[in-house]
Design goal:
By secondary structure, the protein is mainly alpha-helical. Helix content is 43%, strand content 8%. The chain is built from five helices and three strands, in the order αβαβααβα.
């Protein structure tokens, strides 16, 4: 026999609403995007919300926001709100990914090759 009370599916809007406390985005814009790296400063604290604790456990090594979302099976918008909570409480750190290296000017490369040939 079924227990009375809410029977939420894992991805139901009601469950996601409860997980984020009704928030649809961060209180203060943080600049988190899909490739922002998140790393935990320590392990989960007793009494943490299960989703927060899961993020802290996952992020013992740096993971991107997109990876966290995929591992937890939660929408990126929900994961972003949860990460913002953890950033505010000092449980995790965020870091923009290493920028893609800029290629040097083609004329400079040709000049270096030309100079090497003349040696």
């Amino acid at each position: 026999m079924r227990e009375p009370g809410p029977t939420w599916e894992d991805g139901s809007p009601e469950r996601l609403y409860v997980i984020t406390g009704g928030r649809s985005g961060p209180l203060v814009p943080s600049g988190l995007d899909l490739v922002t790296l998140i790393v935990a400063k320590s392990g989960p604290r007793p009494g943490m919300q299960p989703e927060h604790a899961a993020i802290v456990r996952l992020c013992q090594a740096p993971l991107s926001v997109a990876e966290i979302s995929a591992y937890l099976g939660l929408p990126v918008s929900v994961v972003t709100v949860l990460i913002e909570d953890l950033l505010t409480s000092g449980q995790v750190l965020s870091r923009a990914p290493v920028a893609r290296a800029q290629l040097p000017d083609l004329a400079l490369i040709e000049a270096v090759i030309d100079g090497l040939r003349k040696l």
